[in-house]
Amino acid sequence: MEEEKIRIENLIEILKRRCRAITIITLVTTILAVIFNFFIISPTYEASTKVFIGKGDSVNRNYDSSDIQMYQNLLKTYSEVVRTNDLIDRALSRINIDIESEKVFKSLTVTPTVDTQILEIKYENNNKFLCKDIVDAITIEFIIESKKLIPNGTVTIIENVKLPQYSSGPKKILNISIAFLLGLMIAIGIEFLKEYLDNTFKSREQLEKIIEVPVIGMIPIEE
User: Fold this and answer.
1) How far apart (Å, rounded) are the C-alpha atoms in residues 13 and 206?
2) Do 72 and 88 fall into the same domain?
C-alpha cells in the first residue's frame, strides 16, 4: 500500500512539474481543431424525403403475414433500385447537373423504415440548393422506374424535400471536444515518456536512496 501511495505521489509530482508543457500541447491541439472546424472545413447540408410504398388497393384492405413479408422485401428491393448508377445518371440529366453518379452515390442514403412501408431518401452535399435538387430528381426518377418494375404498385411522396436551413456537419463541438481530450492524452503521454527517459536525479532524497550515502551539501542551480 505504501509503495502504491509513493507511485501515485510520483505521478502527481510529474504532472505538476510538467503542467506547463501539457497545457501548451493541449491548447495548441484544441485551437487547431477550432480553426479547422470553423474556418477550413466546409459545412455540409442534408436534404431528405419520404415515400410510401404500396401495391394495388392494399391501403383499403387488411394485412396478413404474407403482405407484411412482401412489403418488407419490396422496400429492400426499392432501396437497391434507388442506389443504382443508371437511375442516378438519369436523375442528374433531368436537372442538367454535371456530376459523376459515383460521387452522388457515396453521399446518398436510402433507408427502409423498420416495420413500415416508408422509404427515406437522403443526400448530403456542401451546396444546400444542390442537395434539394438532387433528392427531388432522384425521387421523381425512382417513381417512374417503380412503375416499370411493378405496374400495379404505388409510390407516394409523404414528405416533400425541403431546402436545408442548418448544416448537418461538421459536428464542431464534438470534434473540438475530441481534439481537446486527444491533445491532453498525447501531452500527458509525451511528458511521462520524457520523464521515463530522463535519468537525472530530481531531489536529494532520490540520490541518497540510490547511492545509500547521505548527501553533505548541494550546489544550487543559477537561473
Assistant:
1) 13
2) yes
